[in-house]
């Protein structure tokens, strides 16, 4: 019976994900503008500021920047998840789903599937763009595949934070509040510069940022300059990129489930 319920929840989740994907096909501008913004950041830092940035341990700045931007894109996806969940809840769509004889996990699962597919597509486009401007992974297919998995693993964890925020905060200022949360986390990291070039306390904060862990791990797995020569992150980047999303998921998946159950009570 439990296996049957899980199978039904998976099928229902795919159906709900299909609804979200159809919505993006009909109104693709959110995805397009999001990608354009990330490409603009890459070009700006790579060609406008890149010549002034030195990396500890040496190496090409574009090769350092691109894996960091891939990780930052996974973080920026938090806003789209939160906004979509908040809109569905505010317009009563989530309540309609709750009134149907479907698993309570199906709605969140559908959002997770759709957003992961969207993030995988965005990541593929950014990687192709990186190749066009000179970024090159220098390791084998297994290492590159693991790097992509770690990027999507971070996105999966942040999905539950986005679902929770979207269900809990649906006011007009909710999106702005998420932007205030996301931007400091994204920039106080090793996405654009090495933590070793920052003041001591700030470098420590940046080094322990979950985005930094994923950025460092993907740089290592892609064979790109890591910008780290000492410290825990330099020696345990893949471990950190594996554990941080696990911690985030363990915290926010139950919170998101609880927020969904409490809707309209």
Automatic annotation (TrEMBL):
Residues spanning the membrane: 29-49, 61-86, 107-132, 144-167, 174-195, 242-260
Pfam families tied to this protein: ABC2_membrane
Compartments where found: Cell membrane; Membrane
Signal peptide as annotated in the record: none
Topological type in the membrane: Multi-pass membrane protein
GO CC, one annotated term: ATP-binding cassette (ABC) transporter complex
Chain ranges of the ABC transmembrane type-2 domain: 29-263
GO MF annotations in UniProt: ABC-type transporter activity
Entry keyword Membrane: yes
One BP annotation, GO: response to antibiotic
Keywords noted in UniProt: Antibiotic resistance, Cell membrane, Membrane, Transmembrane, Transmembrane helix, Transport
Family: Belongs to the ABC-2 integral membrane protein family.
Name used for this protein in its record: Transport permease protein
Lineage: Bacteria, Bacillati, Actinomycetota, Actinomycetes, Micrococcales
């Amino acid at each position: 019976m439990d296996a049957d319920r899980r199978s039904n929840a998976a099928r229902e989740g795919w159906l709900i994900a299909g609804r979200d994907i159809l919505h993006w096909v009909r109104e693709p501008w959110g995805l397009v503008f999001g990608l354009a913004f990330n490409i603009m950041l890459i070009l700006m830092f790579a060609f406008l500021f890149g010549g002034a940035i030195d990396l500890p341990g040496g190496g090409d700045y574009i090769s350092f920047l691109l894996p960091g931007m891939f990780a930052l894109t996974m973080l920026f996806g938090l806003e789209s998840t939160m906004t979509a969940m908040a809109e569905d809840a505010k317009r009563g769509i989530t309540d309609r789903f709750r009134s149907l004889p479907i698993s309570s996990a199906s709605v969140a699962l559908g959002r997770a599937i759709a957003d992961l597919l969207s993030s995988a597509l965005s990541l593929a486009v950014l990687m192709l763009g990186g190749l066009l401007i000179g970024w090159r992974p220098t390791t084998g297919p297994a290492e590159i595949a693991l790097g992509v998995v770690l990027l999507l693993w971070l996105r999966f964890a942040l999905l539950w934070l986005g679902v929770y925020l979207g269900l809990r905060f649906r006011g007009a200022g909710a999106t702005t509040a998420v932007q205030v949360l996301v931007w400091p986390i994204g920039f106080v990291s090793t996405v654009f510069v090495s933590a070793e070039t920052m003041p001591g306390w700030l470098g420590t904060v940046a080094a322990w940022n979950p985005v930094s862990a994923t950025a460092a791990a993907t740089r290592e797995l892609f064979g790109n300059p890591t910008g780290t020569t000492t410290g825990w992150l330099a020696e345990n980047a893949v471990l950190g990129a594996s554990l941080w999303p696990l911690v985030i998921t363990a915290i926010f998946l139950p919170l998101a489930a609880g927020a969904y159950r409490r809707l309209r009570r």
